[in-house]
């Protein structure tokens, strides 16, 4: 083809040069000769357009996903010996990039495709399954500025606080996060520029029910809604609390009345003398408290006592109390003003301690939960920090005013804060309530559930994305049929049957995948089990969660693949015609010059 082109070009160019040379006017002769040659060559190339030979790789492709970086694409193309085909998926197309509506069409477009270079934030698990038997090489973009991790308890007890914790990567502008609940911002945190921070936003609901709070970010004048924070506030667990006092005192009197007002079942046994005690019962039938037995202790979740009261127990009572802790999960809290060295009570009081002051008491800044602090009169001792002891009430300097450790199925704890009732006298009822709610929740006998649901993943369900739910039934007999489940939308009351598959190595556990169609609250239920509620977010919410999931899924998918041999990188060549616009422009300019030059 090249020879044919020049076969026509040479006579045409020679003819035009001869015509230009034979003109009598010798002015501008070099320019006429040059224009004649260009006109002749460009005319022939318009009729017989040339082609270029370009190296391509039919076994390699580049796939651009949302968030890809143009500089990374350019750097990758420069490293390739042969130019691969570039595709885009669910993102704006680059020049010469072919958009894909489905990943299945990749093999149709390139039958010999073997390696895919993946740029951007990656693909989710379902999309990656469409790339099976292809070698995926990820070149992932770093997560953008903003929230990069988030966690909160989606079910709390009334009286507890909702805590939204996570990480925030600040950009080059100061930013601020707000937690909106009950129609206004309840908590906020500010961030400086160009750094990564951890944050914790809190709000204490005033009533039980299902609520949806909102997390927003403000940077300059721009305000963005990051996502919803669904929370189910459940009624406070009504505990059975047994108080064993060595003598009448205000601490146990105030505590008894406080717990009874919260509808807890409370019993108080106060020693009057060696062989005489006084008993009180609130919110529960009267029972004989003169002697502790295993049967009696089964009705209680927590026992709160003093070292002297423990020493006054008979050996059989202490043995029954110890069995209730180790075998039934009972929690026992001992309130002390000094370390206890008695061998008879060592099971309950055997904590390592350290003296901090030579005074009989000291003022301590007590803290618990998050942002809950108060000044308390404490004993001049602290519990030693050991791996076995979990801190319940701490000080700012790291000392432990109260701590607990596991003992079989239950917990034993000791506190060096002998008096908390002064908070009530000072009008700090909320501090008093929060303190004891925190202690009781850390010690109470754990509620056992034989049948329950749980959301496995994702943390943030979204419409048209798979939501995996697990159902556990410890009462299921061998060979019994799988339970049936129904998912109900609380938005429009539509329901759908949820098929459950039994786990091979955990026969008591069943798993089902639900595809929600819209956002809002959903309820999943099965026979003889408490219903379970979960919330489906809008598709635009918690973009960081989607980005993190895609990055993680892509990296895991690539890590599981075997490395292919170098022979897969075959090189081919394709011919591409040169654009005719160049030759047309040269022909117009050169011929126009010859026409104008002849007029002058």
From TrEMBL:
Segments crossing the lipid bilayer: 6-21, 33-51, 579-596
Keywords: Membrane, Transmembrane, Transmembrane helix
Protein known as: Aerotolerance regulator N-terminal domain-containing protein
């Amino acid at each position: 083809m090249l020879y044919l082109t020049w076969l026509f070009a040479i006579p045409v160019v020679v003819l035009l040069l001869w015509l230009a040379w034979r003109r009598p006017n010798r002015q501008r002769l070099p320019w006429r000769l040059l224009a004649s040659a260009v006109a002749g060559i460009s005319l022939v190339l318009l009729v017989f357009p040339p082609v270029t030979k370009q190296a391509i790789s039919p076994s390699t492709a580049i796939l651009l996903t949302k968030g890809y970086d143009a500089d990374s694409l350019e750097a990758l193309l420069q490293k390739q010996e042969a130019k691969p085909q570039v595709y885009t998926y669910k993102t704006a197309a680059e020049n010469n990039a072919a958009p894909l509506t489905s990943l299945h069409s990749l093999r149709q477009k390139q039958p010999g495709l073997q390696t895919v270079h993946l740029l951007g934030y990656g693909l989710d698990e379902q999309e990656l399954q469409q790339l099976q038997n292809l070698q995926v090489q990820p070149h992932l973009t770093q997560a953008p500025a903003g929230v990069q991790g988030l966690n909160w308890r989606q079910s709390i007890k009334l009286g507890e606080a909702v805590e939204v914790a996570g990480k925030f990567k600040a950009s080059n502008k100061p930013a601020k996060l707000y937690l909106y609940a009950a129609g206004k911002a309840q908590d906020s945190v500010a961030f400086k520029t160009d750094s990564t921070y951890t944050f914790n936003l809190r709000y204490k609901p005033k009533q039980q029910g299902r609520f949806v709070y909102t997390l927003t970010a403000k940077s300059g004048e721009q305000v963005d809604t990051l996502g919803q924070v669904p929370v189910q506030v459940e009624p406070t667990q009504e505990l059975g609390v047994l108080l064993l006092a060595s003598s009448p005192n205000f601490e146990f009197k105030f505590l008894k009345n406080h717990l009874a007002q919260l509808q807890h079942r409370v019993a108080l046994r106060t020693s009057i003398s060696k062989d005489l005690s006084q008993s009180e019962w609130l919110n529960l039938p009267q029972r004989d408290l003169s002697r502790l037995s295993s049967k009696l202790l089964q009705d209680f979740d927590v026992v709160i006592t003093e070292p002297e009261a423990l020493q006054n127990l008979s050996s059989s009572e202490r043995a029954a109390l110890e069995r209730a802790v180790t075998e039934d999960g009972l929690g026992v809290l001992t309130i002390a003003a000094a370390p206890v060295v008695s061998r008879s009570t060592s099971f309950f009081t055997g904590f390592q301690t350290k003296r901090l002051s030579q005074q009989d008491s000291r003022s301590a800044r007590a803290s618990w939960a998050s942002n809950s602090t108060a000044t308390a009169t404490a004993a001049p001792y602290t519990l030693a920090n050991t791996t076995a002891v979990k801190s319940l009430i701490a000080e700012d300097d790291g000392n432990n005013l109260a701590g607990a450790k596991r003992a079989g199925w239950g917990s034993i704890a000791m506190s060096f804060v002998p008096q908390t009732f002064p908070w009530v006298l000072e009008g700090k009822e909320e501090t008093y309530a929060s303190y004891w709610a925190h202690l009781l929740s850390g010690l109470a006998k754990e509620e056992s559930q034989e049948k329950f649901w749980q959301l496995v993943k994702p943390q943030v369900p979204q419409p048209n994305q798979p939501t995996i739910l697990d159902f556990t039934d410890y009462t299921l007999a061998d060979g019994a049929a799988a339970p049936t489940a129904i998912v109900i939308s609380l938005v429009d009351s539509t329901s759908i049957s949820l098929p459950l598959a039994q786990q091979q190595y955990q026969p008591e556990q069943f798993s089902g995948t639900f595809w929600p169609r819209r956002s809002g609250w959903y309820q999943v239920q099965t026979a003889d089990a408490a219903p379970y509620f979960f919330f489906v977010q809008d598709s635009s919410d918690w973009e960081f969660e989607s980005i993190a999931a895609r990055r993680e899924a892509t990296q895991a998918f690539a890590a599981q693949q075997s490395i292919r041999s170098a022979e897969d990188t075959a090189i081919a060549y394709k011919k591409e015609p040169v654009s005719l616009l160049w030759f047309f422009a040269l022909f117009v300019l050169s011929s126009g010059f010859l026409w104008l030059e002849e007029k002058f």
